[in-house]
Amino acid sequence: MATCVQPEDLFALRPLAQPVSDGQRVYYLESQLDQQKNLSCATIDSVNLVDGSDHRQWSPNDVSVNELALSPDKQRLAFTGVVGDHVQLFLVPLDGGAPEQITHGDADVTTPVWTTDGQYLYFQTTTGTAKPSDQPTVQVIDRLQYQANGQGVLPTGLTYQAIRYEWTTHDQVVVLEREHPFHITDANQKGLVFDCDRMPDDEHDFSTGVFWHPFDGSVERLLNQAVAMGAFGLGKLSPDGQRVLMWGQDNHIPNVSQSHAWVAEITTGNLIDLTAPRDVEVGDMLAIDSQQRLSGQWVAWLDDQTVILLENEHGRLNLISQDLRTDTVKPLLSGDRAICDFSVVDDQTIVFTESTMTSVSHLKALDVVSGDEQELVNPNATYEAKHALVAGQRFTFKGADNWDIEGWYFPPVTPAAKHPAVLYVHGGPQVDFGYGFYHELQYLAGQGYGVITINPRGGNSYGQTFEEAVIGHYGEGDFEDLMRGTDAALKLDATIDPTQLCVTGGSYGGFMTNWIETHTSRFVAAVTQRSISNWISFYGTSDIGYFFTPWELKQNMQDISTLWHFSPLAYVQQATTPILILHGEEDLRCPTTQGKEFFVGLKEAGVETQLVLFPQSNHELSRSGLPNLRIERLKRINQWFKAHLPVIDQK
What we know:
- By secondary structure, this protein is an alpha+beta fold.
- Helices cover 16% and strands 37% of the residues.
- Keywords: Hydrolase, Protease, Serine protease.
């Protein structure tokens, strides 16, 4: 008999990422949570490309791997991994031999990038880090962008370096040095491609550019100069070295403009938006909690005239090819699934990882010509066979303004004549629910809830107009979409008891949970996570507050009345639903003060509430936080709901 999903199952899940292949074997990262160390760890594993046989591990057991890079000559793997307190660079030959640790410094190493001929390996690091002190020291802040979620107060006085390592001689040379962060994404014998903030000293300019840094001493070039105010990155050289494929947006609506694929000519600066004719989003904005250490590389070259793009459409992550001569678009990998990571082996083969609503992570190979897929490894096969996993039932309904809105309903694992249901609101808001494995939703379904997931206006994968509809309108049409979607789910499953409705969500989903808390009494219990309750204080305390607030609400700090109008805290006297507030103590995206302010307001209003603070936890607690606290969080959500559900006579 299949077992229901439990919080502790997080230790059993094995997500796969960063697949690369030398044409004989596929190398990839396999992540898992280490219960003893209370950390997430990853190894480099490989299988035969033809049939998935001959499993091997390539990284040391005591090194948790972050990034993986295969040399273009298919002879070596470079990778970064945690050694003690820092991330170091390693190199391992594929014809035998142990991994060699290349760096031994006291600063983290990131971003291994091979030159296209395989002669050099680039990596990045920093210098100028202040030495630890036994005594407290002051922090002097003089910039608006002084903090970042997951990092805390940003360090000052650092120098950012790109170092070229010649593996035959072991020589290391600094080839690029800057006062501000940058990221190398590709290189050849003539130069390297990197991205960075275009105007890093202007704290109100949020344009990022892809640059060509030539080695002949000539001037660096901004390759997206034709759309200089946009946000661009992930640049990749074409096989002939003449063009750069990149990912980015024109920023005509900050933070919400669709991300497209672009191609720039290095010599002429000619820039083309490849996806302009189609109303689609390039990139992964899918809201799932099961994936780890993805490459984040969403564009690639198949050959000199063909590009491969990962597109987010109606809750799916599809892989498509586009011919640059004819603009012909061809679906390569589609269907009700999420293509989470991929790389091009040659012009006939792509290796990729995928996830579905009921499968955690598979490694597969695609024959581009025939369209045939070969499954290579599923480390979660036993887990999936032994557990009761539920596929969401797609449904559509008319939301606000008669818009078509999409959602999925996960019925409870064990049917009941009457049962509770949870409305789960995604974050963002510019993300989307869809066809990937979501452990938390499976857990709730296993606990007897029907789970309602909806993509209200403001979310991704439904076109530009849909995504921008929430700007300046938080809590309006999106709130109506969610309420109508809840009604539609009740019609879809007549066994849902309307007196047993619960609601939860995090980040934007936390904001919406707070808004629902203060604008309707139809839910019997609520859990708000890493939420926004007060846009006025959020403006000055969040790591993104001073620019995200004007972007999303169309108001700055001068219009306090409008910021207050959009704040759930302003309506707290209307709240009646018992609500649990969960917040990470190190959350700088939605600072802990947001949860605390809402807690005080609810207590003053006489609402049953509880504030739970998670130590050593930032905004990413539910996805990559400490394992024991991720489990604690899931249990507390379930306990709060169960404690406040009415006792129903099932006869």
